[in-house]
Amino acid sequence: GQQVMQIPQYQHVQEGEDFTTYCNSSTTLSNIQWYKQRPGGHPVFLIQLVKSGEVKKQKRLTFQFGEAKKNSSLHITATQTTDVGTYFCAGPHNAGNMLTFGGGTRLMVKP
Amino acid sequence: DSGVTQTPKHLITATGQRVTLRCSPRSGDLSVYWYQQSLDQGLQFLIQYYNGEERAKGNILERFSAQQFPDLHSELNLSSLELGDSALYFCASSASGGVTDEQFFGPGTRLTVL
Fold first, then answer.
1. Is B90 in the A-facing interface, judged by CB distances under 8 Å?
2. Is A46 on the interface with B (CB under 8 A)?
3. Rounded to 5 degrees, what are φ and ψ at B106?
4. Residue A93 — pLDDT band, cuts 50, 70, 90?
5. Who is most buried in A17, A87, A110, B98, counting CB within 10 A?
C-alpha cells in the first residue's frame, strides 16, 4: 500500500541554523499537507500544497511540492526555540478518503 | 484552541477493560477522524465519520469501534484492552471530510493500560 516516509526522524540544530525535513511518497499525491505538533500538544495544520512544483512561504518556513508530486520538503531558515516540535507531512491514501501521515521529524533546537 | 474537545484528558485502566473516548467536533464541521499516537510514534489513522456515516477505515482493530451521533459528536470504544493499547488518542474534525480539508485536532486523550 501507499506509504509516506519522512526523513530525518530526529534533528538537533543550534539556534540560528537552518533545518529541512523531507517527505517521500511511493505514489503520486493529489495534495500534501504539513502539520506541526509541539511537545505535549496536538498537531496543528500549517499548509497545503496542491500544484506540481509549488512553493509556499510562511515567514521563515518554505514548503515545496515536487514536480512529480511524490515528494515534498519543509525548510526552516534560522531556527528559533519556538520551532521545536514534530513536523508531519500527510498525503491522501490512494485507497480512499483518508490522509496517510508520515512518521514525522522531531526538531530540537539548542539555544 | 482548535475548537475540538475531547474527554477525558487522561484515562488509566486495567487490561481486559473497556473504555469510551468522546469527541465533539468544531462547530460546523461534519467529519470526525480518530488517530492513535503511541510514544514517539506517528499518527495512525483509525477511522473517519461524515455526518453520522462511516467514510473511511484505517488500521483499526476489531476490538475497537466508533460511531458518530446525530449531534455530530463521536465516541471511540476500546474493549479487551491490552498493554499495547496505551497511547494518545486524537480526534480531529474537518468541514466536509475531503482529503483537501484542513483537519483540526483536539487535545487528545492519554490512555494508560496497566
1. yes
2. no
3. -80, 180
4. confident
5. A87
